[in-house]
Design brief:
Helix content is about 30%, strand content about 25%. The strands form 3 sheets. Strands 1, 2, 3, 4, 5, 16, 17, 18 and 19 form a 9-stranded mixed β-sheet that branches. It has an 8-stranded parallel β-sheet with strand order 6-9-10-11-12-13-14-15. The radius of gyration is 21 Å and the shape is globular. With about 450 residues, the protein is α/β, with parallel strands linked by helices. It folds into 2 domains: about 90 residues, Urease, subunit C, domain 1; about 325 residues, Alpha-Beta Barrel (TIM Barrel). It binds N-(aminocarbonyl)-beta-alanine (URP) and zinc ion (2 copies). The site of one zinc ion has 3 residues, from loops.
Length: about 450
């Protein structure tokens, strides 16, 4: 054994118990009381929680979008991740017309590998079927370790949207080949109609970003995607679910026995659409927009009963000067917000305050993402798993500020938000990478996670 994390409270989705965790060769080698091994380093975790590293299954690092590129690259984004207890980061590789899936992922993998501070994986967002030939590539993508795709049901003018026919073909082929189809669900035509109307009326503040794509715009697409997934018996994963009617549709489909999964993000759990009325409302502009209190409450309830199974970030930050492009016109604001370093502290803070249990926080941030997306060695504290471990101090209060984050961005929607409890150490495959406020790892030690396809 190389390391023993001694006497902490180990948290799994189903139980919490005081134990030592032994680590050898980057893996968890023992969990029990009074572990000892000659020469092993010992780290005392008395009074602390010992948790699996979180898996953020939704980020956009170095993503060309909204007339610029998102502010965190693979180094700064994954550095921030481990400083917030996220040890595996999934990024979206965007396929373009004429390009293949593996080719697209390999290009992003080459960017990430030399600098990654966390382990990393990719989903591929399909934007063009290349005349249908891309469907023939699904099995090779699974063999390569990328068994999940994304369809944007929006972003028509950005050239990323897929129509219903394409979505249907992808769902069918994904089911045949053991892939998961992820969707960003909003109705593009209704958004375009409402944006044109607001602009014509001179209504250009960030509040109209929300009103151009309110609850029903998202709900229609959730219901449509679920409808097609049910029709074809295909698994479906709805990313960044943010509205109550969508939650109800997911719950109904799941109760009927369909393989429908939903993810939400901390910004939809903590804020309401009222943020778009604030002076800095443009900083909160993301799509789908943050909704009303009913939706926020429905999302929390769905997490508690297991219908929203994952919480991820949709981390896609832009600098203040870029957000300012839309000061007088919401359509010019690059869409996206920061969150990668806030995910686990926020959900664990919610547990610390009694909104959910710590077991639930671990389930939605680590265990479920690993299960749904085929990360066989990740997501839980068990013998044989990767030693991706977070030591969490439930008594350490923390106020979030751009100044104490480890990203490249210059502002955060989380500025001034306090969380009760905070990670004090993060281990990536047994190696200490975050220690009491400081990144202490080595960029490039993060490894590509080859994932298993669905059986
Ligand atoms: O506003 C957002 N969410 N930007 C990133 C792209 C996406 O839709 O996930
Ligand atoms: Zn999206
Ligand atoms: Zn996204």
């Amino acid at each position: 054994m190389d390391l023993i994390i001694r006497n902490g409270t180990v948290v799994t989705p189903s139980e919490s118990f005081v134990a030592d965790v032994g680590i050898a060769g980057g893996k968890i080698s023992a969990i029990g009381r009074d572990l000892s091994a000659p020469g092993a380093k010992v780290s005392d975790a008395t009074g602390k929680l010992v948790l699996p590293g979180a898996i953020d299954v939704h980020t956009h690092l170095a993503m060309p979008f909204g007339g610029t590129v998102s502010a965190d690259d693979y180094e700064s984004g994954t550095r921030a991740a481990v400083c917030g207890g996220v040890t595996t980061v999934f990024d979206y590789a965007i396929q373009r017309k004429g390009k293949g899936i593996v080719e697209t992922v390999e290009a992003r993998r080459a960017m990430a590998a030399p600098v990654a501070c966390a382990d990393f994986a990719f989903h591929c967002a399909i934007t063009d079927l290349n005349g249908g030939s891309i469907l023939d590539e699904f099995s090779s993508a699974v063999a390569y370790g990328v068994p999940s795709l994304k369809c944007f049901m929006v972003y028509k003018k950005e050239g990323m949207m897929v129509d219903d026919g394409t979505l249907a073909k992808i769902l069918v082929r994904a089911k045949e080949t053991g892939m998961m189809t992820n969707v960003h669900a909003e109705n593009p035509d209704v958004i375009d109609m409402r944006v044109a109307q607001f602009l014509a009326e001179g209504k250009k503040s960030p509040w109209y970003h929300y009103l151009s794509r309110p609850e029903f715009v998202e709900a229609e697409a959730d219901v449509r995607a679920i409808h097609w997934a049910k029709a074809f018996g295909a698994p479906l994963y709805i990313v960044h679910l943010a509205n109550k009617e969508g939650v109800e549709a997911v719950s109904k489909a799941r109760a009927e026995g369909h393989e429908i999964y939903a993810e939400t993000c901390p910004q939809y759990l903590n804020f309401t659409c009222d943020v778009y009325k604030r002076e800095d409302g443009r900083n909160f502009v993301c799509s789908p927009p943050i909704k009303g209190a009913d939706s926020r409450d429905a999302l929390w309830d769905a997490i508690r009963r297991g219908d929203v199974m994952t919480v991820a970030t949709d981390h896609c930050p832009f600098q203040q000067s870029e957000k300012d492009w839309g000061k007088d016109d919401f359509t010019k604001i690059p869409n996206g917000c920061a969150g990668i370093e806030n995910l686990y502290p926020y959900m664990l803070g919610a547990a610390n305050e009694g909104r959910i249990t710590f077991n639930k926080a671990v389930e939605v941030c680590a265990a479920n993402p690993a299960k749904i997306f085929g990360c066989e060695a990740k997501g839980s504290l068990a013998v044989g798993k990767d030693a991706d471990i977070v030591v969490y101090d439930p008594g350490k209060d923390f106020t979030i500020s751009a100044k104490n984050m480890h990203s490249n961005y210059d502002h955060t929607i989380w500025e001034g938000v306090s969380v009760r409890g905070y990670p004090v150490q993060t281990y990536l495959r047994g190696s200490l990478v975050y220690d009491n406020g400081a990144y202490v790892g080595t960029p490039g030690e993060g490894a590509f996670v080859k994932r298993a396809g669905r059986s």
